[in-house]
Design goal:
seven-stranded mixed sheet; Rossmann fold; alpha/beta
Length: about 190
Amino acid sequence: MLRAPVPVAPVQIDSETLTGEEEIGAGTGLNLPHYGAGARLVFAEPEPAMADRLRRRAAELGREVEVVEAPAEALPFADDSFDAVVSTLVLCTVPDPAAALAEVRRVLRPGGALHFCEHVRADSRLLATWQDRLRRPWAALGGGCQCNRPTVALMGEAGFALRELRKESWRGMPPLVRPLAYGVAVPRLR
């Protein structure tokens, strides 16, 4: 899969006040330097090679982390396990984003939040049309990335309310994947 550095630190979480954070689809651990000390860090990564690189990166940085080889759609954790879940360029790629978001919601404690930075469907009608036309070839090139996925709308359908949303353009990337949305979503009351 193509990976490039995200142009902004997608999340700033005060780890000193949290008892547990989980990152889904953690890849090779590029977000590790963005986490403060103090909280329990759990990374879910379904690809064994990526999980191995993540473990090596954590060791190089002197970070104690738990790496679990599991997909976002089937998280092996009890309900209400984490104060925060982080998703960086994951929901565009998972085969079943509704199932992944349901799992995130399930493992979040009451008052917990999903911090995200994701590729999204373009607001521009012209670019969205090109995202639709080139979705399949891009997915083959980009490790399954569905560049036209309406991720923010899917969060709402999964029972999340946006507490914070910012849209950006990822300079230096192909136009199909420049539209980014990042922010914080919280589960709506059930």
